[in-house]
Predict the structure of HD-GYP domain-containing protein.
Amino acid sequence: MKMVFLRDLEPDYTIGKSIYNSDGKLLIKSGTKTTRDNINFLKKNMVFFVYVEDDALDDVKINEEFDNVRATALGEMPTVFNNLLTGDKKNAEQSMKVMHNLVDYIVADGSANINLYELKSYDQYTYIHCIDTSIMACFIGKSLGYTGKKLKELSMSGLLHDIGKIKIPNEIINKKEKLTEDEFKSLKLHTKYGKEIIEKYDTFSEDVLRGIYEHHEKYDGTGYPLGLKGNNISEFARIISVCDVFTAVSANRSYRKRFNPNEAYELILSGSGTSFDPNIVQKLRMTFFVYPLGSCVRLSNGVEGYVVRQNKTFPDRPVIRVTYDTATRQPISPYEVDLMSNWNVVVEEVI
Ligand SMILES: [Fe+2]
């Protein structure tokens, strides 16, 4: 099942979850095929999101433009990495233009309306990880007030942050078991290798370089390669490190299931001030919603409902319209719970 914005909804989808209006009245039952008429009916009822069955989506375009730009950038990634590695300056610059399109799209989009669900699981790992780190860094950069050249540089630094891994043996990169001490030592060299690859080009600024070299530094000084602390770590690296960890744990790896967005988000929050710069974590909170409007959730007090409003400063504590009680297994007369004023209740699971 997958969530789709109503603006992207077209006829012939199969509704995956029944849709209720704000009074709890059933609008469309799960299993219904969408038509022009019932889509208009949902629009009139101010429905923003619906859940649809996945296989209906193969040919359907969701967030088409953004996905296209990202897909093009993704297709170009191996070429960019290889050109950079072989020192082919002219070709490298050419292929990097595609990456600039991605940033242009994010900049032109106006609001950071991407939600954490859109940075999701994929099989092909490394390049997607780089692209998503770059996209996320770009949104955070935007909320820090970055514009123009600086934003492009940040995005480029995010995109290239792990380029040094190209010099690490695949057995280490893909190893499912815990790395030995020696293997971990070699893996750590990827920040140094990355710096060496990139510093050959005068097109990259010092900021880009430091973003790559310092992205495994930790705010409390326990990271590598230099053990830098606090604001001695470049701002680019402090941003990239948050995005790197978030997108890494959100991805499906062969040896473990991915974290839910809320779990990944919790992990970042718990590292605020130790692994991560608290100001950057705060920006993450302001920039991304954890539970998009319309997502169905189970609360820790045993009731279920869906997100009807966001609390901007606390994206993990939205307003929920409760419609179901798991204890009685019965729909209940709907009511709203604002998690901002009910601190003893948390979202337990996205359902
Ligand atoms: Fe890395």
